[in-house]
Amino acid sequence: MKDVREALMVGRNSEGKLVRRPLSPHLQAYNMVRISSGTSIMHRITGVALSAGALFLTIWLAAAAAGDSVLSVVQAVYGSLIGLLVLAGFSWALWYHFLNGLRHLAWDAGKGFELPDMHRSGKLVIAGSVILAAVTVVAAYLVW
Fold it and tell me: Among the residues of 67-114, which ranges form H helices?
């Protein structure tokens, strides 16, 4: 019996001829220690985390619209130690995704493709996101 995956690797080129599609390498083929692959994967992870964070924001807004009793429960959950850690992580994810998005915009403009530039910008994105998240958390704490 032929493997089912073989059928998925067959496609047609622009002339209509049957061709064999290349296999995309699995995550195990990548070296996660390299900053380029690490920042790329982290960009995707933070994008998903920001989607989850939008859900938490929606819950908070719905609780505010529902009234003081519901809002106080949500505020108590978000104000707990775990809630504050989640909010701090969300802050970091937001800053990381934003800064790495700027990095991608520079790449779209054709800048920063040299390997030393890629490594430098990756390190700057990581350091900048940590610093800006820390500033955001401290500012939020002082305002609260």
Answer: 68-78, 81-108
Of 82, 95, 100, which is closest to residue 41 (Cα–Cα)?
A: 100
Assess contact for 65 and 119: CB atoms under 8 A.
no
User: Which architecture does CATH list for 33-143?
Assistant: Up-down Bundle (1.20)
Helix/strand/coil percentages in the chain, nearest 5: 75, 5, 20
Cβ neighbours of residue 119 closer than 8 Å, sequence gap 6 or more:
35, 36
Residue ranges of domains in the chain: 1-30, 33-143
What's the rounded Cα separation, in Å, for the pair 61 and 76? Answer: 14
Q: Which of 63, 67, 133, 69 has its CA nearest to residue 99?
A: 133
Q: How far apart are CA 92 and CA 50, in angstroms?
A: 10
User: For 2-35, how does the pLDDT look when each residue is reduced to its tens digit (9 = 90+)?
Assistant: 667 677 777 788 888 888 776 666 666 666 668 8
